[in-house]
Amino acid sequence: MANIPDMKRDSMNAFGVLVVGTGAIAELHIAALRANPRTRLAGVVDTDPARAAAASHTNGGVRATTDLTEALAWPDVDGCVVCTPNASHAPIATAIAAAGKHLLIEKPMATTTADAAAVVDRFAAAGATLAIAHTHRVYDYSLAVKSALDAGAVGEPTLIRVSMLGGWIWGDWHAWVLDPNRSGGHALHNGVHLLDLVTWWMGARPESVYARGRRQTATELPIYDYLEMILRFPGDKVAHCELSRAHRPGSLAHRDILVAGTEGVLTLPWDGEQSLLFDERGVSALLPTSGSAFVRQLDGWLDAIDGGQPVARGEDGLAAVAMAEAAELSMTTGQPVPITGSRVGVR
Amino acid sequence: MKTVRVLLAGFGGLGAQDHQSAMYAPAFTAHPGFRIVGVAITHPGEAERARQAAVNLSVPCHDDLDTALSTVEAPVVSVAAAAPVRAEALAAVLRAGRHVLADKPFAMTLAETRELAALATATGPSTVTVAHHHRFHPMVTAAASAIRSGRVGLPWNVQADFVVAGGTPCPDGELLNFGCYAIDVVDALTGLGVRRVHALPAGTGLTLLALDHEHGVTSTIVVGRTAELAGLPPGRLTRHRYRISGSHGVLDVDATKPELTVASSSTMARTWLAARTVDRLLDELYATVTTGRDSVVGMPQALRTAEVLDAAQRASTTGAPVAITTWTERRAG
């Protein structure tokens, strides 16, 4: 078995991180890596040589390659951050586990429950840390909700409503997200954020999901750009997850949260986090300067490598994939679908 | 303004509700177009309340509805009979050819609602107005008008929340108690019949409804009652909102507004400025009675609401969505 890197090192020998996939999300991960004194960007990998070269150039000439195997053999790579298209996550994670490196992987950790379970097993066998980038857990709003719920502010939560609405951001018909073979569909691509959040807040695993999807922007869309996933938990508890990239105007950015519990109600409405700007174009939202979710997430991963717990474990990523797969099936059949395949309880 | 005489029939409802005393009598009294001329007892359990109301209003109290109908000359009867005798009371008033203001829920079951609908058609031309007063919230009426004129394009989704905090839980369940209000507002906003319903209970007082409408429109409604909340009188709405997403825009209606908040060192008071929804309901009733037109919240709305509630109750029990097999076609226009 490969020698598993640890976190005990001095400032001259920071934890080397390989970033695999150099798209938009990678920039957020890289910014967090470069800001953290515990880490060093060890190199970048992208299947597109031009993008790999551009990422290298942007990041001070760091090593770049199109070959993951080559990069995993570099001597100062201790861990990897993966932000490639979804369907490539499982095979890349498998290679990283075989190389004995730690992994922080973007959601969804895989596009099937079977693949996700296999990845969890491989990292357990390798003794390396697996963390899933369910970044929404460490946004300011989410931490505030979790903190209030943990303090018993509303008693026991019984109904959670989360809506994340926005307009079209996926480019044109060639965008990889629109190809269900590459993205796994919208429930897997971004639905997992909401599914993970509500189960984390509810403190329970759902029994079934009833989902409705819409091909709103175009009837020929291969994926649903708007979806509602209704989770049913034991003991008459319900979570409603609403996710949209179909809203118009495209400038819309609504995040709306309601948690009703046995003793109270928690709300973070869509106009609770943003300023309104009235100008010649009309009214738009002015989002506050964003906080440090990617920094927190990175710290959580590093702490986990040092023996703690990551923000979201492999088991949490697996549970989210299982929920999302069941949701996709529910959208096709029009019936509630039991959720199976996640093997452990929620943390 | 021509004055229309009104008989108040029944001082009961679901559980211990007495909307006749709490809502309709005060609204009829305040409305310049109506004059209450008598009350009738429809169930022994409400006799005391009926007699007290009669004293307060300085009108005669009749010991039963049949006597009142044959004695009192009033073209309008406000029916808020106790649950066990509600359908029977409505039937008596319809057979007597009177205009009806019907407390919600119109009847306790879909079957009863259908029988009364058939009776109303047979006994016509008097009108039925169901007390779904929340559709007369000024923000709801403005929203409905904006939607009809295309301000959001073609609506494709509605998200609704109708959540009351505190107050006496309804022994018949909050879905039957409040569901009609929220379902009716969604109907007022979209005008689209419901084809399929799924319902999931949440906690002891809430239900999440997932409705599939005509033209592929979907809606989701959270309705019911939560714990009492500080700073809010028990039984007041804590969350009342409708978000309508359309092909070309989004309309977000917070129906807990408009609200006047006054705070001082000793107190904070929140006054809901749209509290005149029952007055506006009576404006609608007055218009239908004096012009003979159908009510915008009449028998078809009572039927559609009852169909959705019935399907929701079945879905909630079986755990699977239920199709509404005899959904009502709305008149064009």
Short description:
Chain A is an alpha/beta fold. Chain A has helices at residues 24-35, 49-58, 68-72, 89-98, 113-126, 140-150, 180-183, 186-202, 293-305, 314-333; strands at residues 15-20, 39-45, 64-65, 79-82, 102-106, 130-133, 157-166, 208-214, 226-233, 237-244, 253-261, 265-268, 275-279, 282-286, 337-338. Chain B has helices spanning 19-30, 47-57, 65-71, 86-95, 110-123, 138-148, 174-190, 277-291, 299-318, and strands at 4-9, 34-40, 61-62, 76-79, 99-102, 128-130, 155-165, 194-202, 206-213, 218-226, 236-246, 249-254, 259-263, 268-272, 322-323.
CATH class value of the largest domain in chain B: Alpha Beta
According to CATH, the homologous superfamily of the largest domain in chain A is Dihydrodipicolinate Reductase, domain 2
Give the CA-based shape of chain A: globular
* Largest sheet composition of chain B: 7 strands, mixed
Kindly identify the CATH topology of the largest domain in chain A. Dihydrodipicolinate Reductase, domain 2
Helices and strands, with pairings:
The complex is a heterodimer of chains A (347) and B (333).
Chain A: E1 15-20, H1 24-35, E2 39-45, H2 49-58, E3 64-65, H3 68-72, E4 79-82, H4 89-98, E5 102-106, H5 113-126, E6 130-133, H6 140-150, E7 157-166, H7 180-183, H8 186-202, E8 208-214, E9 226-233, E10 237-244, E11 253-261, E12 265-268, E13 275-279, E14 282-286, H9 293-305, H10 314-333, E15 337-338
Parallel strand pairs in A: 1-2, 1-4, 2-3, 4-5, 5-6, 7-10
Antiparallel strand pairs in A: 7-11, 8-9, 8-15, 9-10, 11-12, 13-14
Chain B: E1 4-9, H1 19-30, E2 34-40, H2 47-57, E3 61-62, H3 65-71, E4 76-79, H4 86-95, E5 99-102, H5 110-123, E6 128-130, H6 138-148, E7 155-165, H7 174-190, E8 194-202, E9 206-213, E10 218-226, E11 236-246, E12 249-254, E13 259-263, E14 268-272, H8 277-291, H9 299-318, E15 322-323
Parallel strand pairs in B: 1-2, 1-4, 2-3, 4-5, 5-6, 7-10
Antiparallel strand pairs in B: 7-11, 8-9, 8-15, 9-10, 11-12, 13-14
Helix pairs in contact in B: 4-5, 5-9, 6-7, 7-9
